[in-house]
Amino acid sequence: MHSPPYPGVQDTADQGTNTPAHGLHKIARIEALPAILQKIIFTAILIWLFNVLFVGIHEMGHALAAICCGAKVCSLYVSLSGFNGATTYTLLTGSIESSTVMLGGILLTVTGTIVLYYLKMELALYVVGLRTIESLNNYNPGSDMTTLLQCIGPWSYLISIGLTCLLTLCMWYMLYEKRLKTYSPKNSAPEI
User: Fold this and answer.
1) What are the pLDDT digits (tens) for 105-141?
2) Is-annotated flag, keyword Transmembrane (predicted)?
C-alpha cells in the first residue's frame, strides 16, 4: 500500500467495500426490501380486487339488461378468482332482447371505466379497461360472444370492439398526458 500524497489526507482509492458508508448503503437496501415487497403485495391484492369488481360490474350489466327486457334474473355469480361470472335469467323470445342482454355487460363496464377515469383511479382504470377489451375478444365456441355475433352480425360486433378499444385508449392517453403535465420539470421549478 502506498502512502497518502499529503499528511492527514486519506487516499480513497484502496478503501474497497469495507467502509462504514458502504455498510450503511447495504443496511438501507435491506431495510427497503420489506417496503418494496409490501408495495408489490398491496398492488397484487388491488389488481385482484379490481378483477372481481370488473366481473361483478359485467354480470350486473347482463342482469340489468335482462330485467329491462322483461326477463326474471334467477342468479348472479361472481367467482372469487376474479375471472369467472355468470348470470342466469328466464328465456327471452326475441333475438334483439337476447343481444341487448349480452351487450349489457359491456355497456356497464364501459360506463364503469368512464366513472373510474373521472374518479382518477388509475390502477382500476387499467385493469377494468384491459378486462373490457378482453371480454369483447372472448370469442370461443359456446361463449356469449359467439351467440352475440350470431345475433347482431359481424359488423356490429367489430364496431363495438372498436369503440370500446378507442374509448379505453383515449382515457389512457388523457391520463398519461395529465401525468406528463403534472410532473414536468418546467412546472416544478419556481418562477423568478
Assistant:
1) 878 887 887 787 778 777 777 777 777 767 666 655 5
2) yes
Q: What's the pLDDT at 181?
A: 63
Please write down the HEC assignment for all residues of 53-100.
HHHHHHHHHHHHHHHHCCCCEEEEEECCCCCCEEEEECCCCCHHHHHH
* Beta carbons within 8 Å of 144's beta carbon, 6+ residues apart: 102, 105, 138
The rounded distance, in Å, linking the Cα atoms of 15 and 41 is: 39
Longest dimension (CA), the chain: 98
Task: Please give the Cα distance from 109 to 47 (Å, whole number).
Answer: 16
Q: How many CB atoms lie within 10 A of CB 185?
A: 6
pLDDT at 12 over 60: no
pLDDT at 4: 53
Which range among 18-22, 39-43, 180-184, 187-191 has the greatest average pLDDT? Answer: 39-43
Q: How far apart are CA 38 and CA 59, in angstroms?
A: 32
All cell numbers assigned to 39: 408495495
- What's the alpha-carbon Rg for the chain, to the nearest Å? 27
Contacts of 100 (CB under 8 A, 6+ apart): 65, 68, 69
C-alpha cell at 110: 364501459
